[in-house]
Design a protein that fits this description.
heterodimer; A: 421 residues; alpha/beta; B: 105 residues; alpha+beta; globular
């Protein structure tokens, strides 16, 4: 059986960054990445933005060139997935039937798009947005498609809707909950984005349940809602979240269910096995220690560096502040921190001006900010979040003063150790 | 196709050919400067592609946007030569220019 010192499963942001990080830190052992996709590691966020819009060629999405990986002796085993893991023997079995031994295993598989479960889910023209090939298929069809139904009002669905409007398509967006972005943002932000999408011509509906996807000759023709209404559509885009791709590792004895449970060093309960990125369930300092999975590039990169450092012999723990971004139309949404568990929100600025922030507090302390076209607030609010500042809501609301000044005259922050738990 | 002289964090200099029309961040990334993380992929939403551009070149470039300037503030180490490389479109104006990859922030 062949063996590599480090085997990374998954060629997304976290897997690729771990490999590049190992080499940057001078790690000299053998490193291989096993990846289901046929392409070199690439920037996934662009899939629902510039790449879908046709504004960027795929080559410009590559995180590194083929030469980069070759020069650094990172072996890319593309087009293969892991069928099973033998944690005791320190080996994985690939879909090809080959076994590959490892010294350390980094599980960086992310997730697969949560599929619709209703009738018609498999009709031609129903698309997830997770991989390059998903978007390539959509782009081919888009030439002849006029009406698109987007199911799911999260980042993916909203970003796709924004691009599709720019491409001149008729777009209906269907969200099951009573507001878009419900999982990640407060109501003020949701209402603002709903209004923006409607102003840009999206028929955006909240609180609507999909009954089934209708088809004609094997191809999607519409979406039937629970109340019987049929929304005509030549294409359906499904953006209803991901399911962590963790089955082989769970079957091998890893702890976890919705993700692989890891400690602050990204170690699983299995010897020499780490998990990072979207699939890693971890206690996050910015969620008051709660176990969370974060689906974002920041988390993927920062966890990758923690493991790369450890395996290169440097101590490291994961305690980075989460941040996110989303581009829709001419709106730049930037989020710092996790609003999970907030008990108060402060609106800073007027949404009507299309430049404002929502500041989330828990027990009087700033835990997160959503900033729309408000980069200054995002940059300055970062300090409030990282240091856990308590701040007077009236002061936060006052756009006449900058957030960085609030921190200088308000109460001193509580040491982080006292806040977690 | 302008030629640039790029210095990494270790102080090593290398001459690279840049494709006009691409962003400086893309050029640095494709030339293998992995210190340029460019986590947001080049949409001015992070500051992990911070570089310093020599003044004589800097003055030939279009001025930076307010967003870029605000993002640069987050590095804590910006100076008069600081730019986000994703916001610079490579053109002949950069010919022979010295670029230094900024420290990690």
């Amino acid at each position: 059986m062949e063996r590599r010192d480090i085997v990374i499963v998954g060629g997304g942001h976290s897997g690729a960054h771990a490999a590049a990080g190992l080499r940057h830190l001078g790690y000299a052992g053998t490193v291989a990445i096993v990846c289901e996709e046929p392409d070199l590691p690439y920037e996934r966020p662009a899939l629902s933005k510039d790449y879908l819009a046709g504004e960027k060629a795929f080559e410009r999405l590559l995180m590194h060139t083929g030469a980069f990986w070759e020069e650094r002796h990172v072996e890319l085993l593309l087009n293969r997935h892991v069928a099973s893991v033998d944690a005791e023997a320190h080996s994985i079995r690939l879909s090809s039937g080959d076994d590959l031994g490892y010294g350390s295993l980094i599980w960086a598989t992310g997730g697969r798009p949560r599929p619709l479960t209703c009738a018609g889910y498999d009709l031609k023209g129903v698309h997830p947005v997770r991989t390059r090939s998903d978007v390539d298929r959509m782009r081919l069809e888009l030439e002849t498609v006029l009406r698109v139904a987007v199911i799911g009002g999260g980042y993916i669905g909203l970003e796709a809707a924004s691009v599709l409007r720019k491409l001149g398509k008729r777009v209906v967006l269907l969200e099951a909950l009573d507001r878009v972005l419900a999982r990640v943002a407060g109501p003020e932000v949701s209402r603002f984005y709903e209004a923006e999408h409607r102003a840009h011509g999206v028929d955006l509906r909240t609180g609507v349940k999909v009954d089934c996807i209708l088809g004609e000759g094997g191809r999607v023709s519409g979406v039937r809602l629970h109340d019987g209404e049929v929304v005509d559509a030549d294409m359906v885009i499904v953006g209803i979240g991901i399911i962590p791709a963790v089955e082989p590792l769970i079957a091998a004895g890893a702890t976890g269910r919705n993700g692989i449970q890891v400690d602050e060093e990204c170690r699983t309960n299995l010897r020499d096995v780490y998990a990072i990125g979207d699939c890693a369930l971890h206690s996050n300092r910015y969620a008051a220690g709660a176990m969370v999975r974060l689906e974002c590039v920041q988390n993927a990169n920062d966890q990758a560096m923690v493991v790369a450092k450890r395996l290169a012999g440097q101590p490291a723990v994961y305690d980075a502040v989460p941040w996110f971004w989303s581009n829709q139309y001419d709106l730049k949404l930037q989020t710092i921190g996790l609003s999970l568990g907030h008990d108060q929100t402060v609106l800073r600025g007027d949404p009507a001006t299309r430049r404002f922030s929502v500041i989330y507090l828990r027990q009087g302390r700033v835990i997160a900010l959503d900033c729309v076209n408000a980069v200054k607030d995002y940059v300055q609010g970062r300090k409030l979040v990282i240091e856990g500042w308590a701040a007077d809501p009236a002061a936060l609301r006052d756009t006449g003063s900058q957030l960085k000044d609030i921190a200088s005259w308000d109460r001193a922050p509580t040491p982080v150790a006292d806040r977690v738990g | 196709m302008p030629t640039l002289i790029v210095k990494n964090r270790a102080g090593a200099e290398r001459k690279i050919d840049a494709t006009a029309g691409h962003s400086l961040m893309e050029i640095l990334r494709d030339a293998g400067f992995e210190e340029v993380l460019a986590i947001c992929g080049g949409c001015c939403s992070c500051a992990t592609c911070h570089v310093r551009v020599e003044p004589s070149v800097l003055e030939k470039l279009p001025p930076m946007s307010a967003d870029e300037s605000d993002m640069l503030d987050s590095t804590g180490t910006r100076d008069s030569m600081s730019r986000l490389s994703c916001q610079i479109t490579v053109s002949e104006a950069l010919e022979g220019g010295h670029i230094t990859i900024a420290e990690e922030s």
